[in-house]
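Sample log: Olfactory receptor.
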Amino acid sequence: MMLEATYNHTPITHDTFFLVGIPGLPSSHVWLAVSLTAMYTIVLLGNTLILTVIWRDSTLREPMYCFLCVLASVDIAMASSVVPKMVGIFCSGDSSIGFKACLTQMYFVHAATAVETGLLLAMAFDRYVAICKPLHYQTILTPQVMLGMCVAITVRAVLFMTPLSWMVSQLPFCDSNVILHSYCEHIAVAKLACADPMPSSLYSLIGSSIIVGSDVAFIAASYSLILQAVFRLSSKNAQLKALSTCGSHVGVMALYYLPGMASIYVAWLGKDTVPLHTQVLLADLYLVIPPTLNPIIYGLRTRQIRERAWSLLTRCLFHHSNFDL
């Protein structure tokens, strides 16, 4: 009876919501817009370069490069779903977003994050097989296995996000249509509902904890085994090279997982102690910084991609210079 009474408000369907940006920091919006534009440019150029290099070079067909292609595509989609709107809010104050567009953005943002964490796990497993079981690399990571992993990662994200989006779409929004966030983040939108948002919020918390927690556990196990194998190497140079590569990978993962999980748990446990602008910034960081760093850490630090990218850029530059002459 109480649940029926809660949902018995006369619903006023808002056709438009308004995103605040970073609550309490309007004076920093210009600098945030400049920073986001610079990072978004790196996201587009860096990930497009990696996709182009791998697509054009028939020798780059190992599982690692295929996972890099998928990761680059997800990074572009994830950043493109939020950054242009954020920049519009910070620069021109264009904060309006349609209700259906808001739900669509919410779906793609959270689904993309679920896909990304699955890809990071797949890439950690790829490195584990390459370093710890090099003689069985081709037989373990066959094209069929890779395709199955990508399909499983995508299906998991869809199965997680579809019920969540449906629950939010069924909530009545009777009062405010001002979202205290810079994009349509689930909890920020659900808080505006006249009904109790606890079911969808609890589903989001449990689902995110299970997905990220299991992925992080398997990633940690993979890199622990990798480190054990690295320390058994006789060459100090090989050890340092492997440690440098693993360290950079772990650093990018930390920049992805820590702000993301912090933003989720702070919204639940520390919402009265952590300033709202800090919560929003944490949620923004894990959507923008990893796609900016991934093409540098996973792509351009890889010798084969770096050499072919430089060759491609050189040919393009000299071709245009000769054409102009």
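Observation: Residues 1-11 have pLDDT under 50 and may be disordered.
Observation: The longest helix spans residues 99-132.
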